[in-house]
Structure formats: structure tokens, C-alpha cells
Amino acid sequence: MDSHTEAPHVPPEELDGFPVAAKSLLSERRLHTLKQGDMFGVFDQTGDILFGDGIADGLYFHDTRYLSCLSMTLQGVRPILLSSTVRENNVLLSVDLTNTDIEGPDGSPEGRMNHDLLHVRRSRFLWNHVCYERVEIRNFDVEPRTAQLDIRFLADFADLFEARGSTRPRRGTQRPPEVADNQVTLSYDGLDNRRRTTVLRFWPPPAALDARHAAYRFDLAPGTRVLIHYEVACDPDGTPALQPNRRFLTGAVEARRALRLSSSRAAAIATSNEIFNEAIRRCICDIYMLLTDKKTGPYPYAGVPWFSTAFGRDALITAMLTLWLDPEIARGVLNYLARHQARIEDPAADAEPGKILHEVRHGEMAELGEVPFRHYYGSIDSTPLFVMLAGQYLDRTGDVALLTTIWPNIERAIDWIEQYGDRDDDGFVEYGRRNKDGLINQGWKDSYDSVFHADGTLAEGPIALCEVQAYVYAARRAAATIGRRLGKTAYAERQDHLAESLRVAFNARFWIEDLGTFALALDGHKQPCRVRSSNAGHILLTDIATPDRVPRLVEGLMKRSSFTGWGIRTIPEGEARYNPMAYHNGSVWPHDNALIGLGLARHGYRDEAAQLFRGMFDAAFYTDLRRLPELFCGFTRNRAEGPVRYPVACSPQAWAAATLPALVQSTLGLSFDPATVTVHFERPRLPDFLDEMTLYNLEVGGDQVTVRLVRVGEEVAINVVERTETIRVQIST
């Protein structure tokens, strides 16, 4: 992320029990990331993978680093970087390099080469757990030149948690490398009795090849070029029939086609602002790059590099933010989480019957129990969010068939809320970890210090977070709505009754009159944490707050102490633990603002939602690739400067990528009625940086409409450009 300000230091304990090492600061280097399926890669600007303690670089598969070093030299030295970029569709990394000045032997003029005579282009993509690369070398000199290219590689098979800073007392066994004419096989036998294998294949066969090095030497006439192809396969099934050069071409076509096919489901957005068009295209491409096809449908992995796996909360929120855009994402998330819902009590995994997943890991440390995240359920909000999303999905699609299929899972989730979530029968849902190595805090702000009292004292559990009570309220309302659609009237009436009881109790216990907001949480002694927070903004996603309190809550969120100019801080200035460089105690998270924006719109605060939209778009303007990161520091906005980078922020991150699309929905007041096949716009607004917006292929019940919106002063005019016969567009002013 670009900024004129130096990145701050992050203490290792910032990310709870499994820290990201400070030496792996992602903000200090402009890294490139690729992701496809269960594989992702982190590369430097030249396309290399640097090797070192605490360095994030690598090629990862199923939470293991299958390639820990990849370096290329030209004429014995690292070439000069000309440019590098990940194509807009996120499929291909392209890097342009050239030679530096090369001295002849012992400084003699013979063999000397001036810089910028040899051009090298590296093209790389991932497909079906293989990393493909083509290296093109071209001689632009008027004389023949000999090009010497060396590729060095190493596979340490480090677990992802090792790569991000954890230490292990024991590791498995590295097997002896196997070297053939054009192939090197590197293997590791883990302590979990699994063999992990990296196979590198080169074409044409190198002049020299050993366990860590491939060497090429070419004589190039003026103006001629040569191509080298190699691939890195993770746990391959066998030797492919085609050589790497042929597989590069077919794989590139298949990778582009697959991404184009999946993203074609989404409604398209085009506006009068070309920079915003770049940002929204990047959002859509990032969302679909992070989707991983499961047997249950598409599932958004949380983010690269540290969270490229299935997370419950992240996927549920990403699905909510993109529901208007592509309901198939929500369908895939609901199916997957229903299948992985906890069935038994397992304290080691913080699992209880009916609870929805927090995280899945496939690495050696997870398999051995060295980290508790193999199938981990330490999330207090995933379960109500699951039911909440199910209700929203039904409202958006009318897909009763899916809701009928997962109804038993919805019932079990509600049962968990009643039997396990409410630990002391006071009507509120609390958390407290059952595994001493699990997460201390189990809301979305899961840093060890993210829940505290007004004097800064950390809250003791069990802890009832304010936003979780709002999610539970919405979950009960959703269960009631779904129940009625499925003919379960008595069940629905009970859920409505319990939701209303929760609403009354919540407003009585959580509201802090002198602060004009809801308490961050109730601690284990039922004492309120009298702290202003963005958590309270999530309450606006529901109707749990009494109407008289909503204006004061909104006013507090939009004050200068809270709103930085980029977005709303997690904790506003003036609170005891406020720190704009802290992970959860003063930073700005795009998805947090997207959820608050949807809540603002729900209660009619379109102008405030547009303010958040403006801030997030401006932040994207300053970031590399127009890509919003996981978070940035919460310093107040300065003129002509971008937001201050957070040093270990993941980028891309699924719910960050979904932020701008969600803010489009919030400012337009966009909703859908599948029963009448209608698209609704309620008091639509366009922010001041957008004069026009066209939404292509908005879909309801299989019908589609394309609409054009034009800002006229403070009003918005809407024209239907194209539609199928039965779909309608309705505007409320």
C-alpha cells in the first residue's frame, strides 16, 4: 500500500497466540501475490522468492510452503527491474528485466556488456496446484551475445505458521533430492506421516541441473530470442504427458477461461470515473480470485498470505457484502458451513453441537495439534451470522429449496445459541475459550487486548459483545421468517418472541446514556465496557436498537474522533487503548466500514453512507493496484497523502475486496424482491465523485435488467437500458 509515512512497528503479541513476525512486514516491500484454488504465491518485484527468517515469500499449498527460494540471475548477477505487475484479471504476473553492466574477465574489454542490451520477460500463473513460468530472453544488441541464465530454488516445506513466525521444537525429515534430465523432485516426510513433494520440470533441458540449480547458456544473434519454460508442481499425481512449454499454453487458456466464467455471474459496474472503474474491477477480480471451488460450491478464502483458507466469519461477511452482486457465493458458503457444522463437544477445537466453523487448516502443525486450527470453532459470531445470511439469501433469491435442505443446520445453530452460547442464562450470548491455546477473544476483533474497560483494564470473560447480540437478534428474526416459509409457524412465533425479549434486555443493559452509544461488551461480572467502538455500528445492520437511540449512535460514529476522513476507526480517539497503529484498537478496516455503511443505509442515513464510500474510494486511489488492504492505520487524513499502511495487512483480502461493491449497494438503497421479480432503489444517492453509474445484468429469479443512474444535483435519475420481459424496477424517493 502506497504512503508517504513510514510503517509502524507491530509487537508480535498483536495477533494473539500465533503472531506474525515483525520481520515479515508486508508493507516494506511491494510484493506480488497470485492465488488459485488451494495454492498461492508471494513474490518480490522481480518475480523471485527471497529466502530468510520471517520472510513471507514462497509458493504455498494447503498451508505449507512448497517453494521457499526462487532466484534468477542473468550473466551471474540479478537483472535490473524495469516493471512488474499482476494483470487486472489476477491471472498472470508479468515482469520485465534487463541486464546490468557486465565486466569482462579481469576487467578486460572482451566479454564486456553494457546495460539494457538483453531483455528478459517473466510470465507466471497458477493452475491446478502447479506454478507455470515462461522466461523470454531477447538480444537487442547489434552484436551476437551469449546469455547465461541461472535459476536457483529451495523447498523448506515450512508450515504456514512457521513462515509467519512460530517456532517448532521438532520437524520432519527432508528426503534426498532426485534429479533427472529435466526434472528435480524435492520431498519432505512430516511428523504427521504425510509426504509432501515439490517437482520442478524444465524445458528445454538445462545445460546443467542439480538439486538446487538449473543453468542455461544460449548464443543469441542480434534481434533473436529464446524461450525457457518451467513449472513447479505441488504433490503431483504423476508425470504429465506434455512438456512444460505445451502445458504453459494450455494452462494459461484454462486459467483465464475459468476465472472469466465464474466472474461472469456477477453484475457489472461502470461509471463516469475511470479511476473508480479501475478500483471496482480490481474488487471483482480479487473476489473471484479468492473464491475456491468446493464440492459445495464457491467459497471465498479470507486473504493472502496468512489467511488463504476457509474461515467462517470472513466468508459469511464477504457473502453478505456481495449478495446483491452474486448470490451464488452465499449459496456456496451456506452449503460448506452447513456440512462442517460441529456435531459433538470437542474442547480442544472449541466445538459444541450446532456451532459454525471458525477456521480450517491443512498444514502439518494443525494436523499434529501444535496449533488448534485443524477444524476450529472458536468464533462467537459465526453461528448467528450463518442464520442471518440464510435469511438474507432467502430474501435475495427466494430459493426455498436450499433453505429446506439446510433447515436442520439452522435449527442446530439456534439450539447452540440457546444451549451453549448463553452460558449463564441471562439472555445474552458470551464467549470464553475452552482450549488454552485457542483465541482469547472470539469476536471479529480477536486481538488479546481488543475488549477492555474505560480505564484500559482488559475485560475478563465470559464476554458478551454488543454486535453479537445484534447478530443473534437478526438470526432469530431470520429463523422466524424462514420457518414461516417452510410452514413451521410455532417455531417462527417462538423465535420472534425471543428476539423481542433480547431487544428489550439489550437496550436496557448495553446502552450508555452519557456516551450516546452501546457498550463495547459486558464482562464476566456483567459490568459494561464503557468504551465507544465501531462494534456498535454493526448494530445498525438490525433493528435491535430503539429508534430514539439510532441518531445518537450515528452521530458518534461520524465524529472526528471516530471518522478519520478515510473511514471509521475501530476505537475512536480518546479511549484508553486508542492507538491508530494497533490491529484492532484504532485502525480502519474497510469491511467494518462496509457493514456500518449498510447499517446506515438501512436506517435512512444515505449521506453518511456516501461519506464512507468517498473515504474508502479515496483510500483505494492511493493503494497499489487500487486494492483496499485488510486494514490501514487510523491516523487522521492529511491533504495530498494516502492512508498510513499497516505493516502486516493481508492484500488481497476477501471482505476488503467486497467493501466498494457493498458501499455501492448502500448508497443506492438497492434491494431485490424475488416474489414480484423487482429491483428496488430506495432514496438512491451517488457520491460526488460519480456523475453516472451503469449496473449491468442485475438478476432476480433468472431475469435480468441493466440500469443507468445519473446524478442530478442531490437527486438520482434512473433509466432502464435493457431488461427481460417480466422484471421490474421500482424507485422510492
UniProtKB/TrEMBL annotation:
InterPro entries listed in its UniProt record? 6-hairpin_glycosidase_sf, 6hp_glycosidase-like_sf, GDE_N_bis, MGH1-like_GH
What residue stretches are annotated with the Mannosylglycerate hydrolase MGH1-like glycoside hydrolase domain? Answer: 314-620
Q: Where is the Putative glycogen debranching enzyme N-terminal domain?
A: 34-230
Q: Which GO terms describe its biological process?
A: carbohydrate metabolic process
Q: Pfam families this protein is in?
A: GDE_N_bis, MGH1-like_GH
Q: Report the protein name in the record.
A: Amylo-alpha-1,6-glucosidase
Q: Which organism is it from?
A: Gluconacetobacter tumulisoli
